[in-house]
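Page 47, continued from p. 46.
Same chain as before, 147 aa.
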Amino acid sequence: MIGWLKRRQAGEIRVLSAAALALPLTQMALRFASLPAVRHRLWRVLSAGHPLPPESRLSIGRVLRCVDVASRVSPLPCACLATALVAQALLHRHGYQARLRIGVRGSRSGQFAAHAWLERDGLIVVGGPPALVAQYQALPDLEHLIV
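Result:
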């Protein structure tokens, strides 16, 4: 991790720091508050509603890499929903739109499972691989309900 940090520019370190702080807090908040409330607060804290000027933005790949690194070193295991919410807010801050998707599946034994992921231009950018996501029946687009 230290070697990776030494090769990063200041913008990446800021995004990594924001993700590292936001992921465990979002994970905890989702246990006590509604999805719309958590998302609203997260977007305010990360200034997602105020995209950076183009010259200050990181590439989509760099933003996603920072979120991935932060999720792997988080003191709390981060569920897919927390990771997707933080990634979506940071992507939006850097000028990229991604749609939050939630899918469900059941089993013959009656167990229920859910999964969250982000899509951009029809591609899964967080929460993949596509084979995993294909196991879930995507719910109708819920973005308008959680803004």
